[in-house]
Amino acid sequence: MAKENNNRPKMPNFKSSSLYWIYGLVLVFLVGVYFSDDNVSTKEIGYNEIKYLIETNSVSKISVVTNEKYAEATIKDEMINNVFGSDAIKFAKNPKVHVKIPSADRFTEDLTTWQKAEGVEKVDLTFSEDTSYFQGFLYTFGPFLLLIFVWIFLMQRMGGGGAGPGGVFNVGKSKAQLFEKGNNPNKVTFKDVAGLSEAKQEVEEIVEFLKNPSRYTELGGKIPKGAILVGPPGTGKTLLAKAVAGEADVPFFSLSGSDFVEMFVGVGASRVRDLFRQAKEKAPCIIFIDEIDAIGRARGKNASMGGGNDERESTLNQLLTEMDGFGTNSGVIILAATNRVDILDKALVRAGRFDRQIHVDLPDVHDRKAIFNVHLAKLKLSEDIDVDFLSRQTPGFSGADIANVCNEAALIAARRNKTKVDKEDFLSAVDRIIGGLEKKNKITTRSEKWSIAVHEAGHATISWMLQYADPLVKVTIVPRGMALGAAWYLPEERQLITKENLLDKMCSLLGGRAAEEITLGTIGTGAVNDLERSTKQAYAMVAYYGMSDKLTNLCYYDSQADYSFTKPYSEETAKLIDDEVKALISSQYERAKQVLRENAEGHRQLAELLVEREVIFAEDLERIFGKRKWESRNEELMRENESKSEDDSKDEKDSSETAEVVNDEEKPQNVPDATEEKQDEN
Question: Of the residues 167, 232, 443, 538, which has the fewest C-beta atoms closer than 10 A?
């Protein structure tokens, strides 16, 4: 029986659109009745004309409406052209004329007189009364009713479309989507969230607050009122909120910050009040506001430039009042997510409103490995896939980027008619996302190809010879996106960056231009991106990090300052900063040329190999220059992690062996004691 019920065809659901069906039917009815009157196709004539038509035998019958004082005459078919003239075609289907009469009695007397004339045929005469009062009502009030229905329809559409019965009066209702227990079709749990161990611990504790509040309140603690998830785009903030909705056994309200914004004044504040009213009725519960910066932007900034918005500020003020005002919201916890916490109003992120800021940062190498394991489980993989290698090849990638890499690799494998996704497909996917689509058909001359190879080989040579430069992965002279060539590095994910790190990276950036000058004797425009990045880095070192000899320990960056058009230093200091930046870049440029002169033969071999094969890898540099002298930080981290894992497994093994020994000794432990007692007795 259950199977039959499942296979039964589903009937269309008209409940959600029933109001629109009613509007449509009423509108069609009004229009139909309004234009269905037969009088529309009749011609009005004078009293003398009806006399002429009767005397010329043009009328077949006459109907007199006594209460309306008019008569309707039907014209004979053979006389239609004579009566209507050029309009004969228009009145052919309904050849009638109507005439106003003094009264029914007077018209009857006149008709009798007209018919006494010689040759005049008698006409059939009938009398009736007009009872179409409803039709008359529609003629009078129909247009007004039609305008009212159209106005209500348009106002409901502007109010959000799905406001339901009440139309414009429900525009201030909350648009939050409610998920209750058993009402979440796309359920996500904490097991589906890889990495983010610290952030998961924070939100798991929030769920535990609601499930078992007495555990915390018995010690005098208070349940936090809110937590805000902060981090770059794609790091998993919304995914964490979905996991909270899937794990919590309490109602979960989900909406976006833009859902409060509307064209009507006061709607945002009204929706905030309605949201918290519903939440209090469902307490304990969780409210999740995604992209809260849409309404939480700091008040009063740039008001003179159009940045102020009274409607948005009133919405924010109402939200602040609901979160921590005189009213009580016991059992209501607010989660929010944003990647622009720096522009939020300070009153919103203070303790007592959002008590916690949970930072969801970009994943490190270990978190990326866990994220890869989640997404790789859905793919058909070949045996050469190394998750550790993939996690090391994607530094700076967010969770969303890693998901995109896995999906792109599957698409590339399918495009190549493979049955499984292999390592080459993943490398192509990473290259596709970072550098863009390959343009192998882009026409380049041999001299241009040699120039590009010299430039890229310069980057590769210097990065291999400097300790703190990022380790090279591969170099290519195949055009990608807007670039004619590219070098892929493995950025060191350092927590603290020293001056030596920055100088080595700057020298590596300038290596392409230096190689062109030394080898080709000229320079080209291909180094524009390198020059831009090195210049920005030099300005940051001088003006922000205090790494200049003449501006030591000075920082001209103010993270708390409002938007301003004035520099926080004088013109003399600005000139000094420019001079220091020029000196810094010049010194690293000369250093790059010196390194290339010392390794000229290796640089030449590398450039020739690039022209021949178009793509070279770190193994080729190791064959030409020898093994790199320094271990990369990623290799060091992976090695330490492996040793830590071995130590943990060894400790677990030792503890288990110790437990077995203790269990074995528990039984015979009393035997020696008994023997000693006997010996003492003897």
Answer: 443
pLDDT of residue 616: 83
pLDDT surpasses 70 at 242: yes
| Cα dihedral 40/43/44/49 (nearest 10) | -170
Rounded Cα–Cα distance for residues 318 and 273 (Å) = 7
Say if residue 142 is exposed, middle or buried (CB neighbours under 10 Å; 0-12, 13-18, 19+): middle
How many C-beta atoms lie closer than 10 Å to residue 319's C-beta?
Answer: 27
25 burial via Cβ count (<10 Å: 0-12, 13-18, 19+): exposed
Give residue 666's pLDDT: 43
Query: Residue 368, Cβ neighbours under 10 Å: how many?
Result: 27
Contact between 45 and 150 under an 8 Å Cβ cutoff? The reply is no
Tell me the whole-structure pTM to 2 decimals: 0.62
Residues whose CB is less than 8 angstroms from the CB of residue 325 and which lie 6 or more positions away in sequence, other chains included: none
Q: How many residues does the chain have?
A: 682
Q: Between 495 and 680, whose confidence is greater?
A: 495
Residue percentage of the chain with pLDDT more than 70: 74
Specify whether the CB–CB gap between 548 and 540 falls below 8 A.
no
397 touches 405 (CB < 8 A): yes
Rounded to the nearest 10 degrees, what angle do helices 423-435 and 399-415 cross at? 120
Half-sphere exposure of 564 (CA within 13 A, CB side): 10
Position 167 confidence tier, pLDDT thresholds 50, 70, 90 = very low
Burial call 99-132: b when 16+ CB within 10 Å, e when fewer: bebeeeeebeebbeebeeeeeeeebeeeeeeeee
Residue 173: both structure tokens together: 């209702």
Beta pairing, strands 486-489 & 356-359: unpaired
Mean pLDDT for all residues in the chain: 77
Structure tokens at 168: 């414009």
Catalytic positions, please? 456
Alpha carbons 275 and 169: distance in angstroms, whole number = 16
Strands (E), 302-379: 332-338, 356-359
Q: Is 9 exposed, middle or buried (0-12, 13-18, 19+ CB in 10 A)?
A: exposed
Strands (E), 76-224: 96-100, 124-128, 177-179
**3-class secondary structure, 624:** helix
C-alpha to C-alpha distance for 242 and 286, rounded to whole angstroms: 11
**Cα dihedral sign, 624-630-636-642:** positive
